[in-house]
Amino acid sequence: MPAPTQKNILPWLKTRSFGRRMVYEKSLPSSNRSVLELAGTGEAEGLLVVAESQTTGRGRQQRSWFSPPDKNLYFSLLLRPTVQPVRLPELALLMALGLRKGILSLLPHLPIGLKWPNDLWIDGHKISGILCESEKHPSLGLQVVVGIGLNVNCCKDDFPPELQKIASSLQIAAGAPLDRAHLLAAILNHLEEYYQRWQQEKDLLPFLPEWEQADILKGKLITITQPTRTITGTVLGLAPDGRLHMQLEDLSQTLISCGDTAV
């Protein structure tokens, strides 16, 4: 199947900016790092960096990301949002919604769930991760990089033993390998659509019904580990700013902005 290069994604690409300028590399330390470096030279919003493999790919909380070559999608986008910086935490959730919609546009019957704050899961197994990073350039202003790792054509035996019980791929779920170029274009089309809508809104409220339809945590008792405390409670849903709304064991309620969740 064709590699996810710009030439190969163009037949399906409908975006105005996302992916219209693309850098494709067989191997990179980190696609996020490459975008940040290019952003400092004045690259326009929508710059896309795709790597066939990453030697130091990262997820949230500085975790490493399993990145075998020529099987999955590892890519990063440069954004220059016009919203107030206080809204940036909403982006990770928004991108998860767009990623899910892009996949479902090609594989509409897959039971893809959303796990706060930004992971996609199928049948109890994680298939993707999203890492958002931002910086303020002295002359270019606010710059945000959205990095996405998506397990596409991995078989179960491709995963190391410690991941086989918790990770999956679209190929495993769909029963057949996918055209990564077509898939990447579909994802970019929907990411841009969601991003443009989001900048016209004041928060995530218009997107919450879609999140709730796929939320795999709502109504469940979970534990969240933060740097200074551990919180256990039942998930009630999301607040309009993307924080997790929980009812704690003492019947009080709280909003959680970040952390690791374990159902």
Write the layout of secondary structure elements.
Layout: H1 6-9, E1 22-25, H2 31-39, E2 48-51, E3 73-79, H3 90-104, E4 112-115, E5 119-122, E6 125-137, E7 141-150, H4 170-174, H5 180-199, H6 208-214, E8 221-225, E9 230-238, E10 244-248, E11 253-256, E12 260-262
Parallel strand pairs: 1-2
Antiparallel strand pairs: 2-3, 3-7, 4-5, 5-6, 6-7, 8-9, 8-12, 9-10, 10-11
Q: Please, how many helices?
A: 6
Distance between the termini: 37 Å
Q: What CATH first level of the largest domain would be assigned? A: Alpha Beta
How is the main sheet built? Answer: 7 strands, mixed
Structure commentary:
The chain is of the alpha+beta class. The chain has two domains: 6-211, BirA Bifunctional Protein, domain 2 (2-Layer Sandwich), CATH 3.30.930.10; 217-262, SH3 type barrels (Roll). The chain is 23% helix and 27% strand. The chain contains six helices and twelve strands. The protein has helices at residues 6-9, 31-39, 90-104, 170-174, 180-199, 208-214, and strands at residues 22-25, 48-51, 73-79, 112-115, 119-122, 125-137, 141-150, 221-225, 230-238, 244-248, 253-256, 260-262. It has a seven-stranded mixed beta sheet, sandwiched between helices. Strand 5 (119-122) and strand 6 form a beta hairpin. The longest helix is centred in the C-terminal third of the chain and has 20 residues, at 180-199. It starts with 5 loop residues before the first helix and ends with a strand. Residues 259-263 have low confidence and may be disordered.
